[in-house]
Amino acid sequence: MPEPVETTDPDGVDFGRVMQLTFVYTIVIGAPLVALVSIPFSLPTWGDRATFAIRIGAIVWFVTSIAVYLLERRRVAES
Hints:
Elements: H1 15-38, H2 46-78
């Protein structure tokens, strides 16, 4: 098996891992959450739908990124 092209050994929290996990969790958890939150709202045009998804998605992304960072910081502290 070939060696990886690039490896890292970060001191403390690996921010690359935090960004990757935030991306995955935001899609897996955030997309269905935005769909559920949109149910009670009337969104007649695509522009309204996009604006709503961007506004709620930004909040979901921010909360997810903070949660992932805190979990990674705790994981690093335990190891």
